Inverse folding.
């Protein structure tokens, strides 16, 4: 997979992976937001399980 | 062949490159030093917890740091750039802070965004750590994380955009001056913690049946005191990050007034000293002495760029006497259990600081048409910061408490959160709540070993 937005370092500006590919950026950003939220939700589930013995 | 002398253009380009790299290097190391603040908070809060909650307090602190970073990337930086008018965003100004902007990643034409974002992330994480200490030993981890994200990636940065930004409305309309973020970082975090603590309630055993406060001692006071000293070390990175490195001219505050590192050096050290001495005079004990150092710096933070150093010493001295008395008053009068005195240190310390600079006011602001620093401007801005912290902290935690999501079950609290939540033991050879020693949960809550506060 060619993720580079540049073919030369001459006069380069944004050069991070997929900088010229809004679709890829959207997918990666969405996945990272979902991972952040998902792990908080998972911690709620984890707590509910661990608290069963203590209710 | 003899070497030729560099041209003016070459020398100019060299100076510009060196200036840019110096700027990046400066904030890089400020950010690194600010990480030490979190080393300090980690040691401080683990030491202030009882043996049975040591690791749970550590996990909470580490996760606050971790969750603030991506959420500040997703929306925190945009809020700072876009919300300086109040609640109406400037979408054009905020465009560079959107998480898909070309400035929000490696970019050879932008040497500033990442390094400033990094410093601001560490300011944000500091607010979460301030809040964290107040609620140890009984808050649910997931609720804490949600509240920490709201505080660290939304609330404080909104305050920063209003009053810690060259175009912020508090700066341009009221002449608000807060060099070291006593308002947007310390007051907002302290008042947020106060609001949450009111809904969270006290730890089991914190008050006797007749309402007398019972002192719940942390398991490792030396670690707590060393942690507090590490926070002071980290403050040098924090305060360095409060300055703009212009390269070609003088340093400025984050909102554009002239400043020097020399000025901040004078006053930071005098303030830390005054804080330690004042707290020693009132309490005679090292926890409040080192907390007093924090109060000292926080209470002088708005004017660290302006004060005559002995004045900073005196302000810190007085503020650090008021802080432990404030904590004692809130505990006895309102039965609030702020486990580490976060409100007294940061909320009250920041309030005293903003008002003190109002008393010693009169300095001109730099932007055209902006009012000078005044008592009324400082006082009104302090009220704004207090409300900005308290209202969301109280409101969100109230809803969470009503949903039964805010606090761990009483039996889990009594058994100890390390045993309940953490698959590791802090001191496996000596911990009474060790999984090796305690295979079944405690059947009924028991009172902690404690002493009545004098």
């Amino acid at each position: 997979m060619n993720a580079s937005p540049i073919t030369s370092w001459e006069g380069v500006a944004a050069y991070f992976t997929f900088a010229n590919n809004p679709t890829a950026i959207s997918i990666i950003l969405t996945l990272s937001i979902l991972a952040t939220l998902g792990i908080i939700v998972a911690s709620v589930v984890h707590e509910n399980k661990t608290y069963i013995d203590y209710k | 062949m003899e070497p030729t002398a560099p041209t003016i253009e070459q020398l100019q380009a060299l100076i510009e490159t060196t200036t840019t790299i110096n700027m990046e290097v400066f904030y890089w190391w400020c950010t690194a030093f600010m990480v030490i603040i979190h080393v300090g908070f980690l040691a401080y809060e683990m030491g202030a917890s009882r043996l049975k909650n040591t690791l749970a307090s550590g996990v909470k602190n580490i996760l606050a740091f971790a969750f603030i970073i991506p959420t500040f990337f997703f929306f925190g930086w945009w809020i700072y750039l876009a919300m300086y008018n109040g609640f109406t965003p400037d979408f054009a100004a905020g465009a560079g802070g959107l998480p898909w902007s070309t400035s929000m990643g490696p970019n050879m034409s932008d040497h500033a965004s990442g390094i400033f974002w990094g410093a601001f992330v560490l300011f944000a994480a500091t607010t979460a750590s301030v809040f964290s200490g107040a609620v140890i030993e009984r808050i649910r981890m997931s609720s804490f994380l949600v509240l920490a994200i709201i505080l660290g990636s939304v609330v404080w940065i909104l305050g920063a955009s209003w009053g810690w930004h060259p175009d912020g409305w508090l700066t341009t309309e009221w002449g608000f001056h807060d060099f070291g973020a006593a308002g947007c970082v310390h007051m907002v975090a302290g008042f947020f913690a106060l609001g949450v603590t009111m809904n969270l309630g006290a730890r089991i055993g914190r008050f006797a049946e007749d309402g007398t406060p019972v002192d719940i001692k942390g398991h490792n006071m030396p670690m707590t005191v060393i942690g507090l000293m590490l926070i002071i070390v980290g403050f040098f990175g924090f305060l360095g990050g409060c300055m703009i490195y212009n390269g070609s001219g003088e340093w400025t505050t984050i909102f554009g007034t002239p400043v020097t590192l020399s000025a901040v050096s004078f006053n930071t050290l005098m303030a830390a000293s005054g804080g330690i001495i004042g707290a020693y005079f009132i309490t005679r004990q090292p926890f409040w002495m080192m907390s007093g150092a924090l109060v000292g710096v926080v209470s002088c933070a708005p004017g660290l760029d302006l004060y005559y150093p002995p004045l900073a010493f005196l302000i810190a001295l007085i503020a650090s006497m008021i802080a432990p008395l404030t904590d004692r008053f809130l505990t006895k009068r309102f039965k609030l259990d702020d486990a580490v005195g976060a409100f007294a240190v940061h909320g009250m310390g920041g309030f005293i600081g903003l008002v003190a600079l109002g008393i010693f006011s009169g300095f001109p602001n730099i932007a055209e048409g902006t009012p000078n620093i005044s008592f009324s401007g400082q006082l009104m801005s302090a009220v704004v910061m207090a409300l900005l912290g308290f209202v969301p902290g109280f409101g969100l935690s109230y809803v969470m408490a009503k949903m039964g999501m805010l606090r761990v079950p009483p039996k889990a609290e009594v058994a100890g959160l390390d045993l309940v939540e953490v698959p590791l033991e802090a001191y496996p050879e000596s911990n009474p709540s060790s999984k090796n020693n305690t295979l079944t949960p405690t059947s009924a809550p028991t009172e902690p070993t404690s002493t009545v506060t004098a």
Remarks:
- The mean pLDDT of chain A is 93.
- Chain A has one helix and no strands.
- The longest helix of chain A spans residues 22-51.
- The interface with chain B takes residues 12-16, 19, 22, 25-26, 29, 32-33, 36, 40, 43-44, 46-47, 50-51, 53-55 of chain A (CB under 8 Å).
